[in-house]
Specification:
Helices cover 27% and strands 36% of the residues. With 118 residues, the protein is an alpha+beta fold. The longest helix is centred in the C-terminal third of the chain and has 17 residues.
């Protein structure tokens, strides 16, 4: 479970609480937002009725369909794409989510070789 949690955190940059949607004696349901891409997810945690109220189940699911989760796609020219790529790589490098080199190719020809991020 710990390995899965660490893997998920590395992919989404962590989760921030957006709203507590429902609370009962045995269950809580919250709306969370991922830090890297801003997707909303719903998590429900259910506990056993008897002391010490161990966790009986955890459910994590997307909060909406793809149309609600993603912005419309806009086409960029090559220069705009490179600026956006560098900005995204720098953002991920700064938050320790990326370390490496990036090679961009078009029609099997190398267009750009960016510096190593570490």
């Amino acid at each position: 479970m710990v390995d899965q949690t660490e893997y998920m955190r590395s992919q989404v940059g962590g989760l921030d609480l957006k709203n507590i949607e429902q609370v009962t004696d045995r269950e809580i349901t919250c709306l969370l937002k991922t830090r890297t891409v801003g997707w909303e997810v719903r998590v429900s945690i259910r506990v056993e009725p008897d002391e010490p109220h161990n966790i009986a189940g955890i459910r994590l699911a997307p909060a909406g369909g793809p149309s609600e989760q993603t912005a419309p796609v806009t086409r960029m020219d090559e220069a705009e794409a490179m600026v956006a790529l560098r900005a995204e790589l720098e953002k991920r490098r700064a938050s320790d989510q990326f370390s490496g080199a990036v090679l961009v190719a078009k029609n099997r020809d190398v267009c750009h070789l960016t510096v190593t991020y570490s």
